[in-house]
Predict the structure.
Amino acid sequence: MNTGPGRFRRVRPALVAVAVLVPLVLLYAVCVPAAWQRTGLRGAEPVAATFHDGACLLGRCTVTYSLAGERVTAGLPVGTRAGGHAEGDTVSVRAAPGEPQRVALAADTGRGTVAALLAVPVGASLLALLAAAVHVLRDRRPEDLVQDP
């Protein structure tokens, strides 16, 4: 079945837009809650905890600490910078009062970390907008640029 030569040219921009927007939305869905969690834990008291290795950048490493005489194991949020920490190291974490499972490394609750987490999706969005602008400008026909008097 032949749909003609122009059909794909009309559908292609929509496919490209979807292919760019879906990862951007997923990036925002991961980075914004992680930044929000760190902001919420900024005022909590630091507690000593035992670090357990994992894929910290993906949110798969954990810490174990004592709270009211009980051992609590909690997962660290996505984007945790755990460089230099090995299995069994003692680290300082901040835990939310009343929510012992919500923790973050004390060093990761500063404004710089939150800004870096938010800069990733914003930078990706700006890059996508720049690519779209270049695409639109390159697709202009020469007769569109010249105006008759």
Summary: The chain has a mean pLDDT of 81.
